[in-house]
Amino acid sequence: MSFSRFGGLRTHTSNVGGLFISQSEREVPARRDDLDWLRVIAVILLIIFHTARIFDAPPWYIKQIPPSNWADMLVAFMNWWHMPVFFLISGAGTWFALNYRSGTEYLRERARRLFIPFVFGTLVIVPPQVYYRVISQVGETLSYIEFYPSFLSAWLQKAILSGHTCGFWHTF
Question: Reduced to 3 DSSP states, what percent helix, strand and coil does the chain have, rounded to the nearest 5?
Answer without folding.
Answer: 60, 10, 25
